[in-house]
Design goal:
Helix content is 45%, strand content 4%. By secondary structure, the chain is mainly α. Helix 5 crosses helix 6. The structure holds iron/sulfur cluster (2 copies).
Length: 143
């Protein structure tokens, strides 16, 4: 999760022997607080790969870790990738005037975060219905 682009980032690796100075971890408390009250990705994930519980400590850092196996299993049965977690995330809304004002409010006010989440649920839905699933997928989900 990033404050500006939400979950719409891809992490890549470049192998090099350049002498680089490592960054320190950058925690954005407003995003963590928003995720804590939101959890729309966890409720929407069809593969049940995202935890809706509190963060847990993994390798020294508190995090919500996605269960990659469950996510990938779902993709293989779907026959394509999914990305509903990214599509539903309130941080994924377009980079426009209105949404950027909302982002500012979310960053600066705890009360506004709660209001913004209620508005997001009202306008976009808490858990929108998925598009019709292929029969193969229904068999997998009903196993
Ligand atoms: S949908 Fe986005 S803002 Fe909400 S909990 Fe998931 S990552 Fe956080
Ligand atoms: S891509 Fe789909 S299955 Fe994977 S974590 Fe996101 S919502 Fe869940």
């Amino acid at each position: 999760m990033t404050p500006k682009l939400g979950p719409r980032v891809r992490i890549a690796v470049i192998t090099t022997d350049l002498p680089l100075i490592p960054d320190t971890p950058c925690y954005e408390p407003s995003v963590i607080d928003f995720c804590n009250i939101c959890k729309k990705c966890a409720y929407t994930c069809p593969g049940k790969a995202i935890s809706s519980n509190d963060m847990i400590k993994i390798k020294g850092d508190l995090r919500w870790q996605i269960n990659q196996e469950k996510c990938y299993n779902y993709w293989t049965v779907c026959g394509t990738d999914c990305g509903r977690c990214m599509a539903i995330c309130p941080f994924s809304h377009p980079d426009n005037f209105i949404h950027n004002i909302v982002r500012k409010g979310i960053k600066n006010s705890m009360i506004f975060r709660r209001f913004a989440l209620k508005m997001d649920d009202f306008i976009y839905g808490r858990k929108p219905n998925p598009k019709r699933e292929p029969d193969k997928l229904n068999k997998y989900l009903n196993k």
